[in-house]
């Protein structure tokens, strides 16, 4: 590579909603790819039989499993909401600095709302089931 | 004056030899995954904490089995496209990059095939 001048490192810049959400899209994408392991094990255990299924279910119900599931839910809804934001950009809309910040805020609100809603329904707090 | 040959311009595949194929595949799978993911999240909530019997009844029902196979195929394809870009951005050693790419592509295919097999086994055998 030689001694070429490099642009300043990432730490030099003040984190902004645009840059933070951008790297978060990557992190959540990688996390979701890793999280598919649990989904695959769940399906294969269900195909295997009641004992294997109960073992995977026991892991899901443990505090480690619950923590992973919460992270996975949040990552899923964030990646989904921000993915839609990316598709809107791909269509050519919403590039003004103010619009980018607003859509970032909306993304966070949508992701948090869907995550909260899923957990309230999943834990039976709303007294309803799907 | 363009230095590109007329044939190269018509093909539009550029120096990477694949043009916008990767970009489009990522967007098309992303769009397909929006309804699939929302359906899956809602369906999963309906069987959360359920017994084995209820879980395989849900997985094995015709609508669920078909949509689940589509979700798995589209999801793992989308995942390996995304992970590919991450590796290409951050792994600079050519050999390590190719090795990592192969690992990711093979792992996604293996996991996807295993999960699809599981769904089909439940659907056909219970």
Notable characteristics:
heterodimer; A: 130 residues; mainly alpha; 3 helical TM bundles of succinate and fumarate reductases; 4 helices; B: 126 residues; 5 helices; 0% strand
What is the topological layout?
The complex is a heterodimer of chains A (130) and B (126).
Chain A: H1 17-48, H2 50-61, H3 63-90, H4 97-122
Chain B: H1 6-11, H2 21-47, H3 52-60, H4 62-90, H5 94-125
3D architecture notes:
The complex is a heterodimer of chains A (130) and B (126). Chain A is mainly α. Chain A has one domain: Fumarate reductase/succinate dehydrogenase, transmembrane subunit (3 helical TM bundles of succinate and fumarate reductases, Up-down Bundle), CATH 1.20.1300.10. Helix content of chain A is 75%, strand content 0%. Chain A contains four helices and no strands. With 126 residues, chain B is an all-alpha fold. Helices cover 82% and strands 0% of the residues of chain B. The chains are: A mainly alpha (130), B mainly alpha (126). At the A-B interface, helix 1, helix 2, helix 3 and helix 4 of A face helix 2, helix 3, helix 4 and helix 5 of B.
């Amino acid at each position: 590579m030689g001694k070429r001048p490099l642009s300043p490192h990432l730490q030099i810049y003040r984190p902004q909603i645009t840059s933070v959400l951008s790297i978060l899209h990557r992190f959540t994408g990688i996390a979701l790819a890793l999280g598919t392991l649990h989904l695959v094990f769940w399906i294969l255990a269900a195909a295997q039989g009641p004992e294997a299924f109960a073992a995977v279910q026991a892991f899901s119900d443990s505090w480690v499993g619950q923590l992973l599931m919460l992270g996975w839910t949040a990552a899923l809804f964030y990646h989904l909401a921000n993915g839609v934001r990316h598709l809107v950009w791909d269509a050519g809309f919403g590039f003004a600095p103010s619009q980018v910040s607003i859509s970032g805020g909306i993304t966070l609100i949508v992701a948090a709302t869907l995550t909260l809603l899923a957990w309230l329904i999943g834990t039976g707090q709303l007294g309803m089931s799907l | 004056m363009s230095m590109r040959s007329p044939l190269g311009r018509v093909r539009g595949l550029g120096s990477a030899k694949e043009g916008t194929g990767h970009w489009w595949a990522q967007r098309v799978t992303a769009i397909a995954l929006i309804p699939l993911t929302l359906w899956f999240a809602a369906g999963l909530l309906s069987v959360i904490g359920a017994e084995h019997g209820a879980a395989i009844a849900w997985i094995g029902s015709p609508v669920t089995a078909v949509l689940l196979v589509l979700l798995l195929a589209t999801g793992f394809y989308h995942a390996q496209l995304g992970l590919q870009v991450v590796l290409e951005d951050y792994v600079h050693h050519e050999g390590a990059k190719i090795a990592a790419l192969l690992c990711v592509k093979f792992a996604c295919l293996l996991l996807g095939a295993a999960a699809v097999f599981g769904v089909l086994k439940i659907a056909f055998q219970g």
